[in-house]
Amino acid sequence: MKSLDVDAVRTFVAIADLQSFTRAAEVLETTQGAVSVKLKRLEQNLGRRLVERTPRSVRLSAQGALFLEPARAFLSAHEQALSALSADKRRFVLGIAAHVAGPEVPILLARLNAHDPCLTIEVRLENSRVLLDAFDRGELDAAIIRGDEDRRDGEVLGPEHFGWYAAPQFEHHENTPLRLAALSPACGVRDIATRALDAAGIAWSEVFLGGGSSAVDAAVSAGLATSVFPRRLAPAGTVDIGDRFRLPSLPSSEIVLHSTLTDPKSKAALRTLVCAFREHRGPIQ
Q: Is the separation of the CB atoms in 51 and 59 below 8 Å?
């Protein structure tokens, strides 16, 4: 009867997540040659080609795509079996910016828990500035935030593009201030919007300031105001009104990961989080 080698399966999943033998080797703290050997051993054991590799790309074969989720389940079961005999419970405090968090967050946390059942995960949702301050004070182990113009540290996870969103019935007349909804005066996305309006000479007034993201979404969806949203997180039923009302274009930002984690297990958990983040977002438009 065939049996699966844990290290070989872990290597396969890393290759699948990162789509790179080089990056998989870095995450697994081994060599690219060792990664290739372990994958080959797994493929020979299963009698299936799992990864298609060319000089320009690394992608799963049809059999590899079928094997990926069972492979994840196998690794999760292995970790859970080990954790049953371990008292090594660790705490992981993660901050995710409100304008970054999307529907993929529960998937990220589930993937993180499956990777390391001994990890107690705490999540804080705030605006980027608040989380960056908390990170600098040592209150967070990691933070996924909108990039700060004054900071060049951290790992860039991808770009973020913004638009002016409102309900289809939203009305704005050029001789009246644009009605703008925002989370709080400290919100970086609010700053993007107000700076763009000021530079374009467009008068604006703030309505529904604060009250949380649900209040802003409700105000925008009801046609009472417009607001700037990442394009992938615009409230359902809203439309981009930028061209319609000749609103200024908005600069793109970056999504950045900051982390102080150094121990191998926590770093591996963080890498799992990053991989899941990129995988479930797909291309950020």
A: yes
Q: How does pLDDT run across 107-159, given as a tens digit for each residue?
A: 777 777 766 666 778 889 888 888 989 999 999 988 998 886 667 788 888 88
Q: What is the DSSP string of 105-159?
A: HHHHHHHHHHH-TTEEEEEEEE-HHHHHHHHHTT--SEEEEEPPTT---SEEEEE
Chain centroid to Cα 78, Å, comes to 26
Per-residue pLDDT of 5-15, as tens digits, reads 999 999 998 89
Q: Return the CATH number of the domain spanning residue range 90-158+254-281.
A: 3.40.190.10
Residue 172 Cα to chain centre, angstroms: 34
In angstroms, the CA 127 to CA 135 distance is 12
Q: Alpha-carbon distance 85 to 91, whole Å?
A: 18
CATH 3.40.30.10 fits 6-83, yes or no: no
Query: Is residue 207 within 8 Å of residue 181, measured between CB atoms?
Result: yes
